[in-house]
Design a protein that fits this description.
Protocatechuate 3,4-Dioxygenase, subunit A; 5-stranded mixed beta sheet; 3 domains; mainly beta; globular
């Protein structure tokens, strides 16, 4: 493991967490920035460095074979500390909402800067009519706009504040630090992809018709839940419910012939699992 200058980082905590059982293994890097783990159980292990989860890296263990896996990760403590300030818990913030959807590029007000946020998908195609939020936690204020026909949402924001950026349901897609000067125009491009699925929301019960094969996107997280009966047999054609904590939303899916229910869920939420037996 190294820093942004590819120098080894010693004595930093690395945690592996099995994603179904939540079992954890912890160790600290040596003087060469290296840490070793021996994994004898579990299947999918997430990686945390100094408490920060590396979403793009998952260790998959094969029950049928032994193997050695080497990973080199770059760790940026300052960036991770900034990202730790973000929150996915929005329900109880009592935010003041300021609509800036009518703004166009132009002269900024004193004590403000302008930011033009361009939204594209992974193929670089402009994403129009996407709802963008810029959130200031310190002032409990959320600025709202929509991308125009050029895929751009425009905001004018007070200086000397930290801001987090949401695109549609993708919370904390990026952030803005508090060091932008008065009158400055800042340009930022974010990637937002929609999944190939039909989603219906009927009185806060959400069902998803997901087209396979599934291609992972950066806007949400696919989540498999495998149901088995007490005798170990597959539990097929049974409804499974995920109740979003601190919300009235409930995601519902039916297990397939292998007892698997597939969900595509927003980042940063917690869910209680319910079923009929």
């Amino acid at each position: 493991m190294g820093d942004v200058n590819i120098k080894p980082i010693a004595n930093i905590e690395v945690t592996l967490q099995e994603q179904s059982t939540q079992q954890q293994m912890k160790a600290r890097t040596n003087s060469n920035g290296k840490v070793d783990f021996i994994i004898t159980k579990g299947k999918n292990w997430a990686i945390f460095i100094d408490g920060y989860k590396y979403e793009q890296e998952v260790i998959e263990r094969d029950d049928e074979a032994s193997s050695t896996l080497s990973l080199y990760l770059t760790h940026n403590p300052a960036l991770n500390e900034r990202m730790k300030k973000q929150t996915f818990a929005r329900a109880n913030l009592k935010l003041k909402i300021i609509d800036q959807s009518d703004l166009s590029a132009g002269e900024t007000k004193p004590g403000h800067f302008e930011i033009e946020i361009k939204v594209t998908n992974s193929a670089g195609r402009l994403q129009t009519e996407k709802e963008v939020h810029v959130l200031c936690l310190d002032n409990k204020t959320m600025y709202v706009s929509f991308t125009n026909d050029k895929g751009v949402a425009i905001f004018q924001l007070p200086t000397r504040q930290f801001y987090d950026i949401d695109v549609e349901e993708q919370l904390n897609a990026s952030f803005i630090n508090n060091d932008l000067p008065n009158g400055y125009t800042f340009y930022k491009t974010l990637v937002y992809d929609t999944y190939d699925m039909d989603e219906q929301d009927l009185q806060d019960t959400i069902t998803q018709k997901i087209r396979l094969p599934l291609i992972k996107k950066n806007s949400r997280a696919p989540y498999d839940l495998i149901m088995k009966r007490s005798d170990g047999s597959k539990c097929s054609n049974e409804p499974v419910y995920l109740n979003e904590v601190n919300s009235k939303k409930v995601y519902m899916a039916i297990t397939d012939s292998n007892g698997k229910a597939l969900f595509i869920l927003p980042f940063g939420k917690k869910y209680l699992v319910n079923f009929n037996f």
